[in-house]
C-alpha cells in the first residue's frame, strides 16, 4: 500500500479522479446561469449554430469547450459545466505533477494537490462555466511539461508544453506572458548550466516554443471561418486580434465587486457569484480563497524567496516566481477594472509554494503540518455551504461567512 501511495503514476491520477468526483457532485445546482456564465454560455450557444461572432473580446477555446459539453449533455446545467469539472480535476493533477517535478517526492505533491483542493477557488471555478477554469488547466499542464523537459531534455515534452500554453492563451490572453516567461527561464537557466534542458539548443527550442504556441492559438479560431454571418478570413485573422484588444481595453463603468490587483492576496474584496433565491430557497456562491491557504501561502512565498537567496535553490524560487508573475502581470495589463477571480492562478500557485516550503522545513515543522491541514479542512467545511450553493436558512444568512464588511 505504501508503495502505491509513493508511486506518482498512481497517486497523481487518483487524486485528480477524486477531485473530479467532488466537483461533479451536485454540479447542476443551481439550475440557472451564474455570474459570467450568462456571457460564455450564450457565446457557446452561438458557436453551436455557427451563426456569427459573439463575445469577441476573448478567444474561442474556452467557449468551444463549453459548447462541447452542451453538444454532449444538452443545453443544461450539466452541459454548461461538465468540462469545467474536467478542467478543475486536470488543475489538481497539474498541481501534483508540478510539485512532484520540483521536489522529486510524492508526499509533497500530494500535499500540494490537497491544499489546492481545500483552497476553495479550484472547487468554485470547476463548477461554473467560465474561461479562467480552462485557462489554468492548460496553463499548469504547460508549465509542468516545460519543467519536465528541463530535466529530460525532451523536445517532445517541450513542444507539447508549448501547445498547452497556446491552448491556455486561446482561453484567455492573460496566459500569454507565460510563453515569454518560459523562453526567459530557458535562457536564464541554460546559461552556465548544462544540466537543464540537456541536448536542446537555444534557437530551435525558442523557435519551437513560439511557433507551436502561436500556431495552436490560431488553430482554435477555425470555427470562426465557418460562421454564416461575418465569417473570419485568413486576411482578417491578425486584424481581428486588434479588435479583441480594443474590446478588452475599453474603459468600463465601476462595478460593485471591482478590486485592485494589490488587494487580491489579502482577499479584501471576494465576489458573490450568486446570492439569491433559487428553486424556492436562498443560495449563495462566494468566490473566495481558504484563509489558511491564501494567507499561509504568502508566508510560504516569503520563506521560499528567503531560502533561495541563501541557497540559490531553483525549486524554492520557482513557485514564488510563478505566484509573482501571476499577480504582477496585472500591474501592467491595461484593464480598467480588476476582480478577485483574476487571482485564481496565483492562488493555486500558493498551494505549490506551501508544499515546497513545508517539504523543505519538514523536520522543523513536525506535527504542525497535520495541525495546519486540519485547520484548512475545518475552514473548508465551514465555508462549504456558500461554495456549493447549499440551501441557506434565510436571506441574511451571509453574515455567518462575511468576516469583514467588504466581504458582503
TrEMBL record:
Domain Protein O-mannosyl-transferase C-terminal four TM: 237-407
Pathway the protein acts in: Protein modification; protein glycosylation
Superkingdom classification of source: Bacteria
Keywords attached to this entry: Cell membrane, Glycosyltransferase, Membrane, Transferase, Transmembrane, Transmembrane helix
Cell location: Cell membrane
Gene Ontology MF terms in the entry: dolichyl-phosphate-mannose-protein mannosyltransferase activity
EC code(s) of this entry: 2.4.1.-
Pfam families named in the record: PMT_2, PMT_4TMC
Sequence ranges assigned to domain Glycosyltransferase RgtA/B/C/D-like in this UniProt record: 58-196
Spans through the membrane: 12-35, 80-102, 133-150, 156-189, 201-227, 292-309, 316-333, 339-358, 365-384
Family the UniProt entry places it in: Belongs to the glycosyltransferase 39 family.
Protein name: Polyprenol-phosphate-mannose--protein mannosyltransferase
